[in-house]
Prior knowledge:
Blueprint: H1 18-25, H2 30-33, H3 51-55, H4 64-76, E1 84-85, E2 88-91, E3 94-97, E4 107-111, E5 115-119, E6 124-125, H5 131-140
Antiparallel strand pairs: 1-6, 2-3, 4-5
Amino acid sequence: SRQAKYAFDAVLPATCTQMQVYEAAASSIIKHVTSGKNMTVFAYGATGSGKTYTMAGTSEQPGLMFHIMEDLFRDHHDARRTVVASYMEIYNEELRDLLNSDSSSCSIREDPDQGVIVSGVVELPIGSASEIFSVLEDGAKRRAV
């Protein structure tokens, strides 16, 4: 049997802030997004371990998704580019589009021009960092809990 090996970019204390998590784990993706690459931030863990809080946060303590959008729109947004958001979860090994009540047409595939994509997923245009909260609220209604 093969022994699993893991690499960590950072280990953060339980007392760290959402901004410290963002700076350690996700702030570096902005330069890739602004160069035209699709990027994903993926949270994995047991039920109740804080994935939703880390990703979405609260209005008082915004999570990674808000900080990414805030950084993107504050320093890097170019009006010639379109910013879109999708919201998905993997539940019981099934990919679910949380912005579409009928996510059965959603699947991961490889496109010869774009690389790995999620086909059939809803992509909502985002015009400001604050708009991400309404997208998160809408998607949260469809999450499996």
